[in-house]
């Protein structure tokens, strides 16, 4: 299986004009800021995600995938968890596979981005397979208008940086396909647990409405 490489391409920040002033207000959980844990899979895009989430007002902690156990991370009691992109397979991504299962099972809303998305599928019995490398390219996607896509237009453009995909013919029944780009699953969502994954990069300069997607995740 080929590792997902090339994430340094296009890893630039932009000011996404699709977010309202209310979405830019601090993300709150009750009377305090939302605590958001980011599992870093040693990827250049991780801090793009961190910057976006910080601009949305989240209180952030970033832990690399081999520097803590999931039990220890659960003890920190995050309100939200994001598992980042990375230049490897789910099997080589430290605690990512376990994190994508156990945080949602604990009732903590979780988002997997690229490698995190692939880890989500595999953690629940899905299969990740090789695909023609797509690095620094854009694609239009269609979506179900729920979750991170709430209120967003169809056929929006997203940035892609991957050589692995989730195999649709082996997608577990516990998932619904939330977004597609051609013949590739671009988003999945668990039918019962608070977790979804996106194959594309909402934090990329190439993605439309990326900030709004992350705002919707924090607000869920």
From TrEMBL:
Residues 37-218 form the Glutamine amidotransferase domain. The keyword Nucleotidyltransferase does not apply. Keywords: Glutamine amidotransferase, Lyase. GO terms for cellular component: cytosol. Its EC number is 4.1.3.27. Residues 1-24 are annotated as: Disordered. It comes from the Bacteria. One of its GO terms (biological process) is L-tryptophan biosynthetic process. InterPro entries: Anth_synth/Amidotransfase (IPR050472), Class_I_gatase-like (IPR029062), GATASE (IPR017926), TrpG/PapA_dom (IPR006221). Pfam families: GATase. PROSITE patterns: GATASE_TYPE_1. This is Anthranilate synthase component 2. It comes from Paraconexibacter sp. AEG42_29.
């Amino acid at each position: 299986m080929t590792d997902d490489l090339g994430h340094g391409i296009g890893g630039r920040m932009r000011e996404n004009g699709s977010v309202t002033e209310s979405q830019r207000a601090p993300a709150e959980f009750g009377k305090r800021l939302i605590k958001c844990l980011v599992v870093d899979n040693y990827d250049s895009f991780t801090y793009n995600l961190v910057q976006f989430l910080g601009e949305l007002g989240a209180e952030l902690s970033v832990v690399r995938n081999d520097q803590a156990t999931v039990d220890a991370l659960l003890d920190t009691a995050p309100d939200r968890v994001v598992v980042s992109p990375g230049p490897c397979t789910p099997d080589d991504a430290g605690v990512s596979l376990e994190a994508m299962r156990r945080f949602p099972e604990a009732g903590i809303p979780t988002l997997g981005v690229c490698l995190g998305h692939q880890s989500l599928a595999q953690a629940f019995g899905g299969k990740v397979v090789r695909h023609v490398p797509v690095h620094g390219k854009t694609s239009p996607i269609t979506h179900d208008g729920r979750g991170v896509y709430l209120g967003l237009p169809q056929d929006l453009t997203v940035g892609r940086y991957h050589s692995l995909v989730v195999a649709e013919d082996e997608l577990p029944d516990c998932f619904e396909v939330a977004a597609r780009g051609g013949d590739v699953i671009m988003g999945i969502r668990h039918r019962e647990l608070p977790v979804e994954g996106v194959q594309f990069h909402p934090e990329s300069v190439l993605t439309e409405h990326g900030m709004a997607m992350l705002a919707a995740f924090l607000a869920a």
